[in-house]
Design brief:
The structure holds two protein chains of two kinds. By secondary structure, chain A is mainly beta. Chain A is 0% helix and 56% strand. By secondary structure, chain B is mainly β.
Chain lengths: 109, 113
């Protein structure tokens, strides 16, 4: 079945450093979504990408969809303590949305 | 305010005692689903519903039941809970299954002793 992988599961950065994480699919996707879950909270939708090579920005966050539509990246510029949480990608294909296991980001002040 | 609500938020119960976790959305979404979240395993889908009276198994349906008698409600039923169902449960809704933002409820933390 369709698999969406996020490795590693945890990453620790110093405040102010940049952070990049990747999401890889075993199959070609029709779209990819990113969610953020703050500690103790629920997943909240951040963005959706649908076009090959698409790049979208939200303030310090940059999201990219790969040319082959099988991978995606999330880049955070100059991390802040407010960026802590778990970031999930979710790949859509064949009328199904499959979530990755997420990456938990911690930021040292 | 557009939202998904879940009740209860916290529940401690004993093995074998039937329980229901309610989920309701006020956005007239057709698609609703239940996930469980466990450390290191991410979000795993339990059941989903494409519309009223239409439900289907997700990736980990064993030990759970659902019903969709009304568009806004999608309760999760544990007929005979076991300790391995101790988890954090999220309900989510969306206009459809794949191409739209999923709105998650606040979560229900269930402990089965």
């Amino acid at each position: 079945g369709q698999q969406v992988m996020q490795i590693p599961q945890y990453q620790h950065v110093q405040e102010g450093e940049d952070f990049t994480t990747y999401c890889n699919s075993s199959t070609t996707l029709s779209n990819i979504q990113w969610y953020k879950q703050r500690p103790g909270g629920h997943p909240v939708f951040l963005i959706q990408l649908v076009k090959s090579g698409e790049v979208k920005k939200q303030k310090r966050l940059t999201f990219q969809f790969g040319e082959a539509k099988k991978n995606s990246s999330l880049h955070i510029t100059a991390t802040q303590t407010t960026d802590v949480g778990t970031y999930f990608c979710a790949g859509g294909a064949n009328s199904k949305l499959t979530f990755g296991k997420g990456i938990t980001l911690s930021v040292r002040p | 305010e557009a939202q998904v609500t879940q009740n209860p938020r916290y529940l401690i119960t004993v093995t074998g005692k039937k329980l229901t976790v309610t989920c309701s959305q006020n956005m007239n979404h057709e698609y609703m689903s239940w996930y469980r979240q466990d450390p290191g395993l991410g979000l795993r889908q339990i059941y989903y519903s494409m519309n009223v009276e239409v439900t289907d198994k997700g990736d980990v349906p064993e030990g759970y039941k659902v019903s969709r008698k009304e568009k806004r409600n999608f309760p999760l039923i544990l007929e005979s809970p076991s300790p391995n169902q101790t988890s954090l449960y999220f309900c989510a809704s969306s206009p459809n299954r794949e191409r739209y933002e999923q709105y998650f409820g606040p979560g229900t933390r269930l402990t089965v002793t």
